[in-house]
Specification:
The chain is mainly β. 0% of the residues lie in helices and 59% in strands. A hairpin with a 4-residue loop joins strand 9 and strand 10.
Length: 117
């Protein structure tokens, strides 16, 4: 089992910044990737960014150049630095951890990010 706890969400004006944190605990040896997803009201959950075991990262086109995902392995924590925020970034942001075998995805409880115009 893996437990994920997100923090760092809040209300920010357009153009501002926020940093989200995801603290993981449990059987982390089985995890090969972690990431961030978001879900706005009426929309499906969508990928924001992922980071693999080797450090390789992947970003949604909509956040490339504005968001940065990083990881502190010693603390089992993944971060999402969000700069130049836009109102369309408003959503609940979820942290996920992907187990390799057997394949399974763990989710955090989510943290609200609201960007005002």
């Amino acid at each position: 089992q893996v437990q994920l706890v997100e923090s760092g969400g809040g209300l920010v004006q357009a153009g501002g910044s926020l940093r989200l944190s995801c603290a993981a605990s449990g059987s982390m040896f089985s995890i090969n990737a972690m990431g961030w997803y978001r879900q706005a009201p009426g929309n499906q959950r969508e990928l924001v960014a992922t980071i693999m075991d080797g450090g390789r990262t992947n970003y949604a086109d909509s956040v490339t150049g504005r968001f940065t995902i990083s990881r502190d392995s010693a603390k089992n924590t993944v971060y999402l630095q969000m700069n130049s925020l836009k109102p369309e970034d408003t959503a609940v942001y979820y942290c996920d951890a992907e187990r390799r075998l057997p394949r399974y995805t763990y989710w955090g409880q989510g943290t609200q990010v609201t960007v005002s115009s």
